[in-house]
Design a protein that fits this description.
The protein is α+β, with helices and mostly antiparallel strands. The protein has 5 domains: 3-60, Helix Hairpins (Orthogonal Bundle), CATH 1.10.287.610; 73-313, D-amino Acid Aminotransferase, Chain A, domain 1, CATH 3.30.470.30; 319-417, Nucleic acid-binding proteins (OB fold (Dihydrolipoamide Acetyltransferase, E2P), Beta Barrel), CATH 2.40.50.140; 428-584, 5' to 3' exonuclease, C-terminal subdomain (DNA polymerase, domain 1, Orthogonal Bundle), CATH 1.10.150; 602-671, BRCT domain (Rossmann fold), CATH 3.40.50. The structure holds 2-(butylsulfanyl)adenosine.
Amino acid sequence: MSKIIKKIKNLQNKIIYHNYLYFYLDKPIISDSKYDYLFNKLKYLEKKVNKKKIINSPTHLIGSSIFKKSKFRKHLTPMLSLENIFDKKNFINFYKKMLLLSNTKSIKFCCELKFDGVAVNLIYINGILKQASTRGDGKKGEDVTKNIFFIKSIPLILNGLNFPQIMEIRGEIFISKKDFISLNKKNFILNNSKFSSARNLASGLLRRKNLDSSLKKKLLFVCHGFELFNYFKKIDSYYLNLLEIKNWGFNISDQILLCKSKNEILSFFQKTNKLRSTLKFDIDGVVIKIDSLRLRHRIGLISRAPRWAIAYKFPNEVKKTKLIQVKFKVGRTGVITPVGYFEPVYIHGVKITKASIYNNKELKKLNLYLGDTIFICRAGDVIPKIISKENSFIENLKNKVIFPNKCPSCSFILKTCTQQNNFYCTNSFFCIPQIQKRIIHFFSKDSFKIKGLSPHIINQLIKKNNFRNPIDFFKLDFQTLFKLTNVGKKTANNILNALNKFNSINLDKFIYSLGIKGIGRSVAYNLANYCGSLTNFLKIPQEDALKIPGVGKLIYNNLSNFLSNNNNLNIIDQLINKFYIRVLFKKDKRLFFKKSIFYKKNILITGQLKNFSRTEIIYKLENLGGIVKNYISKKIDLVILGKNPGKKFIYAVNFKKKIISEDELIKIFSKI
Ligand code: IVH
């Protein structure tokens, strides 16, 4: 490279960087005159050299057209997803289908690693990075240009000259296993919260505002797709185009294999699975793609996924460890859940020390003894689960794990149903963990939201000051608060202010805040809509209650038990008549349903949704006649799957329930 070209490149990079600071972050670090000086110098130098050599310069773009602010960005072409397969049989089916559809005897497949990261779409215009966004709903994704800017393997200006004027580069943003462990360990990330996988951490970093540059450097990128708009006509091979893309400055995987037979592909799959633990980053399978772009085009797609590619996922990783202890945890409504603690194991780079054993049925099935060698996996690649054990070396009765008959916290005799699957502590007014969880629920986001009244403070007041119900909290004084650990003057005053100011709540939130077993947000909302006032709610007859979507006999029993308890009525009475809380009600049309696949269906939601808040999605589904359930039961018809799903997901898989992803959900909503 000649001296002058080097100078031009340097200046181009500088200007792109200052454009970004100026137009995107609104935080320029040089004066306008200095910027103009650099810009003009670049123009001057560019004029001196052959025009053909400078087509990818920021001097060709008008300032803010490079970076526009808005949260979501449209992709130029849809970002598709991949169909998953989990076994050889399905792979062979896929392979045969490809031969059939292509009408040939042999096809070239490009086999790659399936990176466990976040998909991004990078748009380049005239060789300059214009925008970067996540996959989102496939049509538009969250704008992450800011943080992409610092990723080494993503060029801001492309190398060379031989690239299309407009193009989309697709790939995966991820983070190394080592960085994941050390960042999580240092508790570097947001308020002590830990990320459950390297992928979640990468996704968190990518979306974070004001991400500091040392963290940005941890993000890595690998290209696994592109839209070159007619350019591919020059080279009809995905792989060869990737090599071209590499020359423009992108990182491509060094573990790509072109295969011509199913045995070659199967051997790639097996080798990669063995290699997996030695890799510096997480992968969860291999991706098998037809290499010819023309053939891809002919074969086409089915809804959101191409037919010409498949993700062949690895079987679940299973680790052996030693059971140390089983604790029996008391939930808000008194349900007792056994939790197994074991010597730490790492699965896909994530440290795991405990797993829920759900209930007595599962505990009996596992037949555990302390000290047993047990096998752990992450169900659905997420939730830790004890799957089985080796035969116990010594089955010493002393060490056998059995469900207690008394509450581990208050020693109250536990109740159970005839099958003895679940045990409950019914000492709800005196059992401390139940009181703690109930009050935390009472003051939580969708209930009586009191800013600053954190679980930590609530727990202290319960333990140190004998607080037992929400009324005790409405009587709080400054001295009591100020004496607690980690509560300063400001926090104490803020909490007192929030409590004093709290004077009204919507009926649905009021009902939800009571924490009645089975009455989640949706049922509370329906009850509120049906009753229309607190007075009606307090005396709702059984035959009326049973007409309400989501209320069955079981929930009605819980409701009527709750409302016939004087302690509960007394608390409600004091809230209304002593602390003058007004319970408001606004009628809406929610009980009129449009017909849809959700109509009269029992629905579970598990995991976090990216595009809807929990309340929003519940309201949307219920508007369509769906009945959103909070708990697993035989009656569930379908399960909505978000990110990091909980045990409801495992249930859905085990019981072969219909699972709807968020992307599919968005599609369905858009058609209604
Ligand atoms: S190709 C139309 N290749 O997996 C095909 N995707 O489950 C688009 N992924 O959203 C994807 N490694 O984020 C492709 N080597 C790879 C991949 C890969 C990871 C991700 C990608 C996609 C998801 C689908």
